[in-house]
Design goal:
The protein is mostly helical and 236 residues long. The chain has one domain: Creatine Kinase, Chain A, domain 2, CATH 3.30.590.20. It has helices at residues 8-15, 32-36, 51-63, 97-119, 129-142, 159-177, 180-192, 195-206, 209-221, 227-235; strands spanning 20-21, 24-25, 42-43, 74-75, 77-79, 86-88, 147-150, 155-158. Strands 1-2 form a two-stranded antiparallel sheet. A two-stranded parallel ribbon has the order 3-4. Strand 1 and strand 2 form a beta hairpin. The longest helix has 23 residues, at 97-119.
Length: 236
């Protein structure tokens, strides 16, 4: 989790899908981030020296009646309190199922890549929460068309370039996971635009929020076949 936090803004930039709020164009690609900011124990977590340190933190919150269990910790990434896995929570909900699957495949690949590095007695540089939060803001504001900071090189770079670098970073584990087809869909997402961009295009063309809602409904059905549709096509 400590290392994977660095990639959370990259993943957010790909998933942005909430440009509107209360019937207004917010100017952000992911306004959901700002809604969740109002809750405690949200955003990018700080890093922990060990799992024991994390457990001590959780136990302190429970003891002082801040929370009754670790599910009340709503960070953008957290160790799941009941399953032995890491939970990515930073994404907006994509409109299409294949986008969701592609993002899930990318998250899985990031964790496996980092696990392999640590298993080989290697690691990935850890960055402070405050730095990663700068990139989260940029991702929520501009999506894939803004710039993110490469902290190692200490410079701004186009978000798209850094996402392509991330795909190269995980490339050697994708075949092991049998997820190349799903990962390849990330390229299609970059070509057709994020959900937020597509919603905004409809709104700019029509000026009608109902048209945007209709578009979202249509997009949700893309690639999905109900049992009834399959039956009909078979009968034909």
């Amino acid at each position: 989790m400590n290392a994977a936090r660095y990639f959370l803004p990259h993943i957010l930039a790909l998933s942005v899908n909430s440009p509107f709020w209360m019937g207004r164009n917010t100017g952000l690609m992911s306004y959901r981030c700002k809604v969740f900011d109002k809750f405690p124990r949200t955003n990018i977590p700080d890093y922990f020296q060990s799992y024991g340190e994390y457990e001590s933190f959780v136990n302190l919150l429970i003891k002082t009646k801040c929370i009754d269990n670790a599910k009340k910790i709503w960070w953008d990434m957290r160790p799941h309190p009941f399953f032995d896995t890491l939970e990515f929570r930073i994404c907006d909900i994509p409109m299409r199922a294949d986008e969701t699957i592609a993002l899930a495949a990318l998250m899985q690949a990031v964790i496996v890549k980092l696990y392999n590095l640590y298993s080989s007695n290697m690691g990935f540089r850890l960055y402070r929460r405050l730095l990663i939060m700068e990139n989260k803001w940029r991702a929520s504001r501009y999506g894939v068309h803004g710039k993110l900071i490469d902290f190692g090189r200490q410079m701004e770079l186009p978000a798209r370039d850094l996402i392509y670098e991330l795909l190269q970073f995980v490339d050697d584990v994708i075949d092991e996971l049998d997820s190349r087809q799903e990962i390849n869909h990330i390229h299609k997402m970059l070509e057709m635009g994020t959900g937020a961009e597509r919603q905004l295009r409809v709104w700019e063309q029509t000026g009608d929020f109902k048209a945007v809602v209709d578009y979202i409904i249509d997009e949700t059905k893309v690639g999905l076949e109900t049992p009834q549709t399959i039956l009909s096509s078979t009968l034909q």
